[in-house]
Design a protein that fits this description.
The structure is a single chain. The chain contains 21 helices and 15 strands. The chain folds into two domains: 291 residues, Rossmann fold; 135 residues, Orthogonal Bundle (Isoleucyl-tRNA Synthetase, Domain 1), CATH 1.10.730.10. The chain is elongated, with a radius of gyration of 25 Å. With 491 residues, the protein is an alpha/beta fold. Strands 3-2-1-12-13-7 form a six-stranded parallel sheet, with helices on both faces. It has a four-stranded antiparallel sheet with strand order 5-4-6-8, covered by helices on one side. The chain has a three-stranded antiparallel sheet with strand order 9-11-10. 49% of the residues lie in helices and 15% in strands. Strand 1, helix 1 and strand 2 form a beta-alpha-beta unit.
Length: 491
């Protein structure tokens, strides 16, 4: 049955170029969006940029630029990822500086305030600029924030507005009791432990004198919204909430037969599955159906940093190897939930072994056969589409493939595709296909067609993961022509 799927990534800060970790999140989200769209579902796919907050303001000052000019420049760079990573053509892009988003953030404030969950008090504590959040001394590691070990938290004392998160312990535990509300399961257990350890109210505003770059608090011009309270609201402001003139919010977020899905890094649990859900509860809005948390990408087993010289630039890889090579590696060789190591040595090895020698070589050999021995390829395979794949092919590999994508196990899904490729290669060797075609009187056209059918099936299976490659292979099959080298070997 066709469903409405709302899907979103987190919004990166515009204080640095896109890194490989955010490319991972975008590609994973895009695979889900393409997969579900190919299955016939109606998709709303969202990403964008988080443009308020102290570190963005300071970064603009460091570069000697007006903050709006600075954020415009970086937002354009992040928007260009849609084309560079070949993301779904209907991808929506929101900026937290958009007028409707500001309006929505202020309306979220008003609703939480009307529920009695906002109050003002003086506060003194340690503040991590990297996280844009206050941090407890008990959470420090060697005196530093565990998420930003190169940053020393600063002591801040001021009068702010607070959100009564402490009011929502029981409701959050009830929400988190649903087994499918967080993937993977151990992240859900982590969220439950966080709530059971006791929830503290959190600051949701900053003094405008200290941070002039932000959304003004309704009814108090001296304060701006805390960047997280502001930014989290993007997940519904992108749908046109609160006015919902086009009915997108009702269709994709509110209707019971729809599904809401968020992707985030493993360090986001308290923001996405606790703070954001409590805000929705306070405002009287539906909570998120599921949040999927991915791990971090390291390089050489170390956290990426400019000082270590191990930063991986995803766009440089795209320029040299093509976008589908990057998408392939992120889908198959980066674990969907655990931390994974990414080095150019590993990437090049996988590229040559799996893409150049594996997929590319197999397709070339099969289409060479087809060119020579098949006269009317369209009459033999039917050119079925993605929705026909599961109906037409009942093999262990395809069952594994669909089950893995439903469970966000991207690497297992790609493994299933490569099982099809490997099996085809083994058949060619075992049956000595090229030798038999030259020396024996065999049903040459029928033999070639069997392999072309396998190539079409593989091209259909890789469509959500490697859409450009899928198209190239299918075009070659339709033309009954050996394609140019899809993945040239790299030394």
């Amino acid at each position: 049955m066709k469903r409405a799927l709302y899907l979103t990534t987190t919004l990166p800060y515009v204080n640095a170029p896109a890194h490989i970790g955010f490319a991972l999140e975008l590609v994973q989200a895009d695979i889900i969006a393409r997969y579900r769209a190919l299955c016939g579902d109606d998709i709303f796919f969202n990403t964008g940029t988080d443009e308020h907050g102290l570190k963005v303001f300071r970064k603009a000052q460091e570069e000697g630029k007006d903050t709006k000019v600075y954020t415009d420049e970086y937002a354009a760079k992040f928007r260009s990822l849609k084309e560079k990573l070949n993301l779904h053509p209907d991808l929506h892009f929101i900026r937290t500086t958009d007028p409707n988003h500001k309006k929505a953030a202020q309306e979220m404030w008003r609703r939480c305030d009307a529920a009695g969950d906002i109050y003002k008090k003086k506060y003194k504590g340690l503040y991590c600029i990297g996280d844009e959040a206050f941090i407890k001394e008990s959470e420090l590691v060697n005196g530093k924030c565990p998420n930003h070990p190169s940053m020393k938290p600063v002591e801040v004392e001021e009068e702010n507005y607070f959100f009564r998160l402490s009011n929502y312990g029981d409701k959050l535990l009830e929400y988190l009791s649903r087994e499918d509300v967080i993937v993977p399961e151990w992240r859900r257990e982590e969220a439950i432990r966080f709530v059971k350890d006791g929830l503290e109210d959190f600051s949701i505003s900053r003094e405008k004198s200290r941070l002039p770059w932000g959304v003004t608090v309704p009814g108090d011009d001296s304060q701006v919204l805390y960047v997280w309270f502001d930014a989290l609201t993007n997940y519904i402001s992108t749908l046109g909430w609160p006015d919902d003139k086009d009915g997108l919010y009702k269709k994709f977020w509110e209707d019971e037969d729809g599904e809401t899905l968020q992707l985030a890094g493993k360090d986001q649990i308290r923001f996405q599955s606790i703070m954001w859900q409590a805000m929705l509860m306070s405002a009287g809005l539906p909570t998120t159906d599921c949040v999927v948390y991915h791990g971090f990408i390291t390089s050489g087993r170390h956290k990426m940093s400019k000082s270590l010289g191990n930063v991986i630039d995803p766009l440089a890889i795209v320029d040299e190897y093509g976008v589908d090579a990057l998408r392939y590696f992120l889908a198959r060789h980066v674990h969907p939930f655990e931390d994974s190591d990414f080095t150019m040595e590993r990437f090049k090895k996988a590229y040559n072994a799996d893409l150049a020698n594996g997929l590319g070589n197999f397709v070339s050999r099969v289409m060479k056969l087809s060119e020579q021995y098949v006269d009317n390829i369209s009459s033999s395979i039917g050119f079925y589409d993605f929705q026909e794949l599961e109906k037409q092919i009942d093999s262990p590999a395809t069952r594994k493939y669909f089950s893995a994508l439903d469970d966000f196990n991207f690497n297992v899904a790609v493994d299933a595709i490569w099982e099809e490729i490997s099996f085809g290669d083994q058949l060619m060797v075992k049956d000595e296909v090229f030798k038999r075609l030259k020396t024996e009187t065999v049903a040459k056209e029928e033999l070639a067609k069997n392999f072309v059918q396998r190539v079409w099936r593989i091209a259909t299976m890789i469509e959500p993961l490697m859409p450009l490659t899928s198209r190239k292979i299918k075009d070659a099959v339709r033309q009954n022509k050996k394609p140019e080298n899809i993945f040239p070997r790299k030394e």
